[in-house]
Amino acid sequence: AQRVTQPEKLLSVFKGAPVELKCNYSYSGSPELFWYVQYSRQRLQLLLRHISRESIKGFTADLNKGETSFHLKKPFAQEEDSAMYYCALSPGGSYIPTFGRGTSLIVHP
Amino acid sequence: KAGVTQTPRYLIKTRGQQVTLSCSPISGHRSVSWYQQTPGQGLQFLFEYFSETQRNKGNFPGRFSGRQFSNSRSEMNVSTLELGDSALYLCASSLAGDPKAFNEQFFGPGTRLTVL
After folding, report:
1. With helix as H, strand as E and coil as C, how does chain B read?
2. What value does the mean pLDDT take over residues A24-47?
3. Looking at beta carbons, which residues of chain B come within 8 Å of A100?
4. Which of A1, A57, B69, B84 has the fewest Cβ atoms nearer than 10 Å?
């Protein structure tokens, strides 16, 4: 069975500080990994996926198969980054996602 | 383009009743997926419909069912409601022509169901 763990329910940082939201997964095959974000009073939306290897809004995430992790990082947090972040996994070849419980990121001025 | 719309936005039902939720996808999107979000279980995949056929299904009891119409609009039905069915139900649509290829999903605002 596939599982996604986000160990931190809440992450609080100051503006300009580095941010790392942790995501660990359990899956026997080759998964696709995603990060979703939900800003206050907005809809859930895709932030990035590991295959695209893009930097979105300054965020990057690297898939580490050895550690089965897909941590989301940003070198300098901004107040507008405050949101709920969800890590998700989908088996390669189909899109049936399993989501983590989410991490609430608060960036203080 | 208009985004994904869900109706109603809020709903209160009592145990044992049934409920139908509706989702209108983005124009041109042919796949509609449903999710349940609760504080206890988080966000869980219910099922996906494409071209009026259920293409994928999560691990939920048979009381949860859905359908999709020829215009891609989808409905989700929950029969014999239980207290634990209280949740935010999210709908998401995507182009999803190839089920093996990634197609970004666009989420609706959700329907908040409360079961008393």
Report:
1. CCCCEEECCEEEECCCCCEEEEEECCCCCCEEEEEEEECCCEEEEEEEEECCEEEEECCCCCCEEEEECCCCCEEEEECCCCHHHCEEEEEEEECCCCCCCCCCCEECCCEEEEEC
2. 92
3. 42
4. A1
Question: Which phi and psi (to 5°) does residue A32 adopt?
Answer: -105, 135
To the nearest whole Å, the CA of B49 is away from the closest chain A CA by 12
Percent residues over pLDDT 70 in chain B: 95
Q: How many CA atoms lie within 13 A of A47 on its CB side?
A: 26
Point out the residue among A43, A49, A99 whose CB comes nearest to the CB of B109. Answer: A43
Q: B102: pLDDT confidence band, cut at 50, 70 and 90?
A: confident
Q: How close, in Å, is residue A24 to chain B by CA atoms?
A: 16
Cβ atoms within 10 Å of B10's Cβ, excluding its own: 9
Judged by a CB distance cut-off of 8 A, whether residue A30 touches chain B is no
pLDDT at B16 over 70: yes
pLDDT at site A92: 74
The single-letter code of the amino acid at A35 is W
- Minimum CA–CA partner of B94 in chain A: A95
**Helix (H) or strand (E) segment spanning residue A12:** strand A10-14
Is the pLDDT score of B100 beyond 70? no
